[in-house]
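Report of the visiting student (M.T.), summer placement. My assignment was to run the structure pipeline on a short list of targets and document each run. The first record concerns Thymocyte selection associated.
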Amino acid sequence: MKRMAMTLDTFTRSVEAKSLPRVLQMQSGYYFQGSVYELYGREGSFSCGELLKVIGISVTRLIVELQSEGSKSITVDLSLDYPGLFRIVADKRPYTSIKEIVDSVCISPECLGQPEFYCPKKLQLPEGTIQAEESFKLTALRTEHGDSHVDCEVTRKDSKHIFTVKLSHTGEFYECADDQFYTLGELVEWKIPKGRKRTGTHCNIIITNVHESYTGLRLL
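After the run finished, the structure tokens were exported:
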């Protein structure tokens, strides 16, 4: 089996959470205080060849680009307990399939896990039609008889309609504008699509190019 060495930063940004736990073998390096290897407040170092079992990854801070009118943008680190509420700006880049959406965003029964999208063209589905530019929420991801699909909820005149869309369904899908406010922790947990950057606003400051910075590995 071919083995490839990579930095921990590359590993944490590329690994799928569902693929954990994973066993890593240390190749080289000494890790100083403040790194992911700071254990119980002390510097930690691992020997070459030592095996590490990674059981989880947590986001502890964000790297963001701040933009203010008339000023140059600056890049700063923000901890997840940064105070205040944020609004997000809808991503203008389209998704090309339902599968791409499912692979990028969080979908769950919780309100924060029900992203909203629209399609410029009609979606002809077994249960009926979602009209062009009509918004729909993704409320659940289900697999039946080996076939995966999402449940979509459309509200029409205070009446909710449920549609089923296969992951293989292709087209142009855009994120809807969101008028809700979120804490920084909620943005990290629910509203930063995988593989994409997120733009948001806090007071009069525009926060762009948000990167998750994984500085916490849970090791067994």
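Residues 8-60 form one domain. Confidence is low (pLDDT under 50) at residues 32-42. I thank the supervising group for their guidance throughout the placement.
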